[in-house]
Amino acid sequence: MQEKPRKTFAIISHPDAGKTTLTEKVLLLGGGIRSAGTVKGKKSGKYATSDWMDIEKQRGISVTSSVMQLNYDDTQINILDTPGHQDFSEDTYRTLTAVDTAVMVIDCVKGIEAQTLKLFKVCRMRGIPILTFINKLDREGKEPLDLLEEIEETLDMETYPMNWPIGMGKRLKGIYSIPDDTVEIFNEDHERKVVPLKEAHMLEDYEKDALEEDTMLLEEAGNEFSAEKVKNGQMTPVFFGSALANFGVQSFLDQFVDLAAPPQPRKASGEFVSPESNDFSGFVFKIQANMNPNHRDRIAFLRVCSGSFDRGMEVKHSRTGKKMKLNQSHSFFASDRETVETAMPGDIVGLYDSGNFQVGDTLCTGQKLIQYEEMPQFPPEKFAKVTAKNALKHKQYHKGMQQLVQEGTIQLYKTPYFEDYIIGAVGELQFQVFEYRMKNEYNVDIEFAHMSHELARWVTKGHVDESMTDSRKMLVLDQQKRPVLLFENEFSLRWFQDKNPDVELATGWDIL
Ligand code: GDP
Predict the structure, then answer these.
(1) What is the reported pTM?
(2) Which of 121, 127, 414, 420 is the most interior residue, by most CB within 10 Å?
């Protein structure tokens, strides 16, 4: 049987831009939904089906990314959830290493916001296609042309509008599809109605004139469509719509199926591995621990990159060279833990893990052991000094710390000489998960002293020493013993740079 093509994507957005609403609407459009229930518990009053973790239940949110599948237009679409709000963590970033396309959702009132920008950087680093959905068109937002300019300038990326709004907010009449010369009419009962522009009699003359003016301007001053640029993430196709009103979502999805990238060759051990290769390969992009003390099992999330995955197959674990049989493979649909029998490149498989896997591990078959490129370490923005409450537990404390750092739960830094432990994270949630697991798995109570530092800069050139540590900055060493300066804020960073012009600093992004 011919396998359906795969399109695997994640949404990058700032909290409240409409990611959840858009995801729900997209899922409704696809037949045969298998949803992991990412609908946030807080709002619906129900818990997500993926709440394996106590902590998730307590907070009523979905802590770690789950994956949804839908079939649309003979394509299997895999949606990887990227937790936003308080549950933003390194896993959110790591998820973006496992997708082939990103969909950027922007609130038309607010434009590009901080978290979108951070997530965008990961996509830029990977050069994957980015499709933009400008949401909340039923609200009075920024001018469409200004929004395009904002994307171009802030993200250094060309835009290509696929449709164009006719009015906005209370004046919203419809969206004009540029390639089809049709208008999708906005109506209160959310029924989809698409007519050729010529037959859009409900438009007033001034609305038609404004549309003509805008489209002429786009034709003259806008960019020319380039499939190559879209593929490389240098140009983003832009769609306007309203997720809440289910307006423009279907036309977005129709185009998405064409524009989104299929699984691409990925670099492993210096060579590109084609998804069509007969040998199976994949990499672990996150590990989710079960917070239930009765079920200690962890789930390693594996992105299949080449060949096909079959339950029970024997694979090699590249980091250790060990052979292992994958007979306990599961899809991550947590409620029923449906067993995955086969999976194709682009798919995600959840594997039971009793401590064998680390984030970034490669599994493969074939003659040669290959290793997918190392998972980047993302620049942390939150730091805390940690100690064990009970000094007698130092053995478990060090063991737990080492294990959790290796697994990728948290980043660890040490001060020179005294070797105090400083942990770093991109989101507060990672601290909570770390504390919880140290207590439940290693029986160690942790003492945290949250630090006010927010910026980490790797020292790439010049001399630094501990005398530079003061109330505003601190010198630490990362796991590879590279010197890193932690700063309180942009101001203390600039101050330091002015005083120490010989010291070159890099953000994590530059070197990781
Ligand atoms: P997320 O945090 O990005 O997942 O955002 P949600 O999907 O939870 O949406 C945040 C809020 O914006 C909710 O109250 C939604 O109902 C609302 N919202 C989402 N899409 C639209 C839209 O198209 N128009 C309007 N007016 N509100 C929307």
Answers:
(1) 0.89
(2) 121
